[in-house]
Amino acid sequence: MIETEYKNDVLTVYLNGELDHNRSAEIRTAVDGRINSLRPKRLELDFSKVSFMDSSGIGLIMGRYRAVGLVGGQLKIKNIPEDISRIIELSGVTTLGVL
Amino acid sequence: MNILNEMRLSFPAKSVNEGFARSAVSAFVMELDPTISELADIKTAVSEAVTNCIVHGYRRESGTVYIDAKITEDMNVIIKIRDKGIGIPDVKQAMKPLFTTAENEERAGLGFAVMQSFMDSVRVRSAPDKGTTVTLSKRIIKIK
């Protein structure tokens, strides 16, 4: 289960727990469903409750960047815990201007 | 090289076991008293290698993933992660960042790059139709 909030054209998704390949399909389906029905101007992925992430999480970020882009929105990622910041930096997704 | 401790695990190649695999290896390494960051590095690298076995080695078909981990006298952790799946025809190409054969599944193509960046060494041995063995190692720095 993931928590989402929609306010002033901004869809916020509060990711939680361990973001791996096992969880990514469920999150992808849930978030893309909300993106397509709400067509937000901005999608914010909040990582504050994420305790672990591998490169499946990077795939998830890149995929949502594309998905929200298709409805004309922008992606932002926020509240990245320190443990996870290394993989995010290594991946280069920060060059997409999502921070 | 004296081995201080070792363990072996095998489990079905199901994605629900990715979390189990990284937690088991992390519990095994705990006796070395690693830092939170060293532990996070090992967990992430193991998660990448096990996910590769499931997604690529066995292409989501049934199979078994084998993990063999050792702790040596000089505080080195050596983790061998093996599948008997389809193998990698070109290991060099597979290890290039952003290369993936599972693009429509949103794989970032960063698995090996993450393993290389988070561990001291990564060795890959693979043969088509025989399977792949990834050997990860990392020395735990003793804090005095």
Would you write up a description of this structure?
The complex is a heterodimer of chains A (99) and B (144). With 99 residues, chain A is of the alpha/beta class. Chain A has one domain: STAS domain (Transcription Regulator spoIIAA, 2-Layer Sandwich), CATH 3.30.750.24. Chain A contains 3 helices and 4 strands, in the order ββαβαβα. A 4-stranded mixed sheet of chain A has the order 1-2-3-4. The radius of gyration of chain A is 12 Å and the shape is globular. Chain B has 144 residues and is α+β, with helices and mostly antiparallel strands. Helix content of chain B is 33%, strand content 30%. The mean pLDDT of chain B is 94. Chain B has one domain: Histidine kinase-like ATPase, C-terminal domain (Heat Shock Protein 90, 2-Layer Sandwich), CATH 3.30.565.10. Chain B starts with a strand and ends in a 5-residue tail after the last strand. Chain B has helices at 17-29, 36-57, 91-94, 111-118; strands at 3-12, 64-72, 76-83, 121-127, 131-139. In chain B, strands 1-2-3-5-4 form a 5-stranded antiparallel sheet, with helices on one face. Chain B has 4 helices and 5 strands, in the order βααββααββ. Chain A binds chain B through residues 18, 20-22, 24, 28, 52-56, 58-60, 62-63, 83, 86-87, 90-91, and chain B through 15-16, 18-19, 22, 36-37, 40, 43-44, 47-48, 51, 54-55, 105-108, 110-111, 113-114, 117-118.
